User: What shape does this take?
Amino acid sequence: MRDIEPAVITQTVARLCQTANYELPHDVRQALERARHGETAAVACDVLDQLLQNADIAREQRIALCQDCGVAVLFAEIGSDAHINGDLYQAIDEGVRIGYAEGFLRKSMVRDPLLRDTNTGDNTPAVVHIKLVAGDGLKLTLAPKGGGSENMSAVWMMVPAEGRQGVVSRIVERVCQAGGKPCPPLILGVGLGGTMEKAALMAKEALLRNVGRPSDIPEVAELEAELLEAVNATGVGPMGLGGATTALAVHVERHPCHIASLPLALNVQCHAARHVSVAL
Amino acid sequence: MPRTEKTLRTPLTTESVTQLDAGDHVLISGPMYTGRDAAHARLMGVLECGEEPPIPMDGHVIYYCGPAPTPPGRAIGSAGPTTSYRMDAFAPELYALGIKGTIGKGDRGLEVRQACKDHCAVYLVAVGGAGALLAQCVRSAEIVAYEDLGPEAVRLLEVAQFPAIVAYDCHGESVFAGDKPL
Assistant: This one.
């Protein structure tokens, strides 16, 4: 049994908050560069040029990529032989508090979803998803999620008879309706099967994959490719201003489901696909 | 093919607005006021009571932006646009009162496009998520109203060469595919 101190978790989370908000992951930047080479329309090229410049400025000057520094979504993989010597949730929230204050990151959480009159002031609480794994380690992944893209996400409890065609058409229709609002080029996380909440969680986990890495399951990889082609055929383009690249990738996670259900979740990710992991 | 960028000075005039066409790339210099959801709700409350608004209307531009906190030695923190459609309820009346430009991202309702035509105004889009790049175009920023709203306070920005694209012009045209001219 290995002890892990809450203070180490707090310091790590504080650092992750800043890294995630300043440094666009290399695979995302490379995907944006590939998209830039694939565009011919002047507006699309201009948008992608600005995004690539923005990524460089943010990294060099340690200023947030986007002013929406998002909800602090944190995935914790806890080894069964690891013992956290305190309250994990408090340690994480303290890390968010420190990271967002010291990093000049925007605090965007309101306490009451209906009244909306009190900002929590420190971007807490984090939204935490926990998994138990083998070993004695603790892996923390911070994936700040902005409101614009999150607002275009959806869960559908489909009728099984709608099938693959229904899955594709719902996702394509959603992307078209969203237009420029979620800041394309997008990464689409899809959860297929499970239950309502399982599908939603899978859709968000799907966003953590390296951009464009296909599923290990051949028929799921085929579905990802079909969805990507269909979404890019819409022509919505960067910032909804038209172009060849509406999505950089589609990642699908699949799970067995009830004989009467076909849960489908779509978590839309904007081009500021921020996520960073540390293994303690 | 190289595209031309038009220089645009704020506050805007009828003359400068009528020369803009949907799809034009512009570089904006001059003052603009930030405001988004909460500030607009308060602003409309003030106007409904017949009180003086905290910002001038005539010819001015509202930038839908809630910036990140300002690091030391900088004019402003990361400052990209937020999604405009959430302010659709407020825009037509503000255009009617003399606001000549709004800047945000994404498409908007037909009533906003109509209001741009009716009141000789424009809606411009800046690149969402380019917060660090756009912050570099801000020379100064000061809170002028609703300081208690934090990131959503109304700020007066002085910008230089701020890049944007004309989304709705005053002639009824739109940059978004599928929008028919008004």
In short: The mean pLDDT of chain B is 94. Residues 71 and 77 of chain B are 6 Å apart (CA to CA). Chain B touches chain A at residues 1, 3, 23, 25, 38, 65-71, 74, 77-80, 82-83, 85, 105-107, 125, 127-133, 135-136, 150-151, 163, 165, 175-177 (CB under 8 Å). The first strand of chain B starts at residue 5 and ends at 9.
